[in-house]
Specification:
Elements: E1 4-7, E2 10-13, E3 18-24, E4 32-39, E5 46-51, E6 57-59, E7 67-71, E8 77-82, E9 91-99, H1 100-106, E10 111-112, E11 116-121
Parallel strand pairs: 2-11
Antiparallel strand pairs: 1-3, 3-8, 4-5, 4-9, 5-6, 7-8, 9-10, 9-11
């Protein structure tokens, strides 16, 4: 089974920046989609950003213009560059992966990382 390991979380002041990383133990599919979700205490899981097999990206309205999702050349590592962080960005951030067909059909991801905490203070 695929393992996803996130890193790069931490505590920053409002307006600061962080870059999250997600390392995949393997790429289980020929075509796959990856992304980032987040969950704050008492809140539901929110899709933050996704990247598809064709390189297309999508962002939640709340992070557009501030966050950037990308992959390295091997495509085994996923990144989320977060700039101009706000207290509302405070959450546990999760890396996700699944076959793109499943994502497009179900709108959900099968594989999840353990999460990395991001805390933004005002």
């Amino acid at each position: 089974q695929v393992q996803l390991v996130e890193s790069g979380g931490g505590s920053v002041q409002s307006g600061g920046s962080l870059r999250l990383s997600c390392a995949a133990s393997a790429l289980p599919y020929s075509t796959y989609c990856m992304g980032w979700y987040r969950q704050a205490p008492g809140k539901g899981r929110e899709q933050v950003a996704t990247i598809a097999d064709d390189g297309s990206t999508k962002y939640a309205d709340s992070v557009k213009g501030r966050f950037t999702i990308s992959q390295d050349n091997s495509k085994k590592t996923l990144y989320l560059q977060m700039n101009n962080l706000k207290p509302d960005d405070t959450a546990m951030y999760y890396c996700v992966l699944d076959h793109c067909t499943n994502v497009r059909w179900y709108g959900e991801y099968k594989f999840w990382g353990q999460g990395t905490q991001v805390t933004v203070s005002s």
